[in-house]
Prior knowledge:
The protein is an alpha/beta fold. The protein has two domains: 46-252, P-loop containing nucleotide triphosphate hydrolases (Rossmann fold), CATH 3.40.50.300; 266-315, no CATH class. The chain is built from 14 helices and seven strands. It has helices at 3-13, 17-28, 34-41, 61-74, 92-103, 125-138, 153-159, 176-179, 184-187, 201-214, 236-252, 255-283, 288-297, 303-315; strands spanning 49-55, 79-84, 111-116, 143-149, 164-169, 190-193, 225-227. The protein has a seven-stranded parallel sheet with strand order 3-2-4-1-5-6-7, with helices on both faces. Helix 10 (201-214) links the parallel strand 6 (190-193) and strand 7. Helix 1 (3-13) crosses helix 2 (17-28), helix 6 runs parallel beside helix 7 and helix 12 packs across helix 14. The chain is globular and about 65 Å long. The two termini are 23 Å apart. The structure holds guanosine-5'-diphosphate and magnesium ion (MG). Guanosine-5'-diphosphate binds next to helix 4 and helix 5. Residues 61-62, 94, 98, 147 line the site of magnesium ion.
Amino acid sequence: MHHDTKLWIDQLRSGDVRALARAISTVENRAPGWSELLKALFPHSGKARVLGLTGPPGAGKSTLVDQLARFYRKDNRTVGIIAVDPTSPYTGGAILGDRIRMQDHFSDPGIYIRSMATRGSLGGLARTTADVTTVLDASGRDLIMIETVGVGQDEVDIVRLADVTILILVPGMGDDVQTLKAGIMEIADIFVINKSDRDGAEHVEREIRTLQSLAMRHDGWTPPIVKTVASQGMGIKELADAVADYEAYLQKENLAMHKSVENWQERLIEMLRDAMLEKAREHMADGGVARYAAEVAEHKRDPYTLIEEIAANAGKS
Ligand SMILES: Nc1nc2c(ncn2[C@@H]2O[C@H](COP(=O)(O)OP(=O)(O)O)[C@@H](O)[C@H]2O)c(=O)[nH]1
Ligand SMILES: [Mg+2]
């Protein structure tokens, strides 16, 4: 390993926030040396607990993350927060709001907050988020919370990498529960009904119970439903207890490793796909894909043989 890299990693692991920030940027931007860095950091990762929190915009995810961070800090646990906010103009205000609210924590080095750019993520959003999580993990953070807006496949892919997935719903969603992105209901380990100070919390609860009764989880866990009022710090301890219960369940049933293997199976395939594509690109001249596309469109070539040839060439070196 390069001497500078070694120094950098030593700094990062000793809690140097600037070294951490630089490492995250390098990984996020796929800047030169990003993969060397991750190779060196990986052996130091795997100790952090990763919570994924998702739910519709405005459900109170940031407020809840903020409260949970406070709660865990009282326990002296160090926290890393990754906010995956979509850059859609509709949420511009929310992103700013999050940043301002989270400024509170900046005086506490035990909490590190990072917003991820969601547009034009080079390695794919889910993969980049996972890599950034590895960096935070290797830096020695005890707990990592990832906040995403549960609206698309990207978000499902991100939160499924977490050890514990928390889905945040709110009263008044009513039938909307059913319109949530398919797949998100299934991966929730814990349901939160935030804004329980409003009418309709029971209705959402019934809705969740109905959906739960339709599908039995293969791990035998029944996701609990926790009611919170994040803006008043209510229900936070109950939520932290639910997280601890699920962790204990994973340990007792020896499911933690199983879950990790399943996650890595998906991640490895994803990484392999990227690597193969990258190799194939290296073997093609500039504008190679465009040139081939023109040839196929004009029926000068058949795409099947073409792909076989490219794949075979990519395999050589
Ligand atoms: N009434 C009520 N408002 C809340 C509660 N939790 C959060 N809020 C408010 O809901 C708004 C959106 O919260 P935010 O955390 O930014 O939601 P996010 O988009 O899911 O991250 C903010 O104005 C919060 O103050 C709650 O439990 N009850
Ligand atoms: Mg938010």
